Amino acid sequence: MNYSKQRELIYNEIKKSVSHPSASEIYSHLKSENPSLSLGTVYRNLKLLSEDKRITKLSSPNKPDRFDGRTVEHYHYYCTQCSGVFDADDISPDEIKKIIPKQKHQIISYELSIYCICENCLTNETSC
Ligand SMILES: [Zn+2]
Ligand SMILES: [Zn+2]
Fold first, then answer.
1. CA 122 to ligand 1 centroid distance, Å
2. 85 CA to centre of ligand 2 in angstroms
């Protein structure tokens, strides 16, 4: 399989996923149908795709990086129990921008990560 074909394969896998997969999750999904694929190739292509801004890398402390094929600006909820990552579509980036005051510093970028116990984990907890 040539390089650009591998890259599109990886890109499409991220694009169709809503779970914000990690490199090893992408690798294990693709591996069975693409036995020649290596984990190193997956990492290399994820780096290239992130640099091209076709996907977004989501970093959280002490956890593997996750990847998002949805490039429109949005924030994320991170479940501290199951490590799930969920789109925070109920938080509008425009509203967040409004609350950042105009000031003497020039803002280049900012991040908003919301840590939570997700709906699924809460449901499982109460049923125990
Ligand atoms: Zn959870
Ligand atoms: Zn997302």
1. 7
2. 8
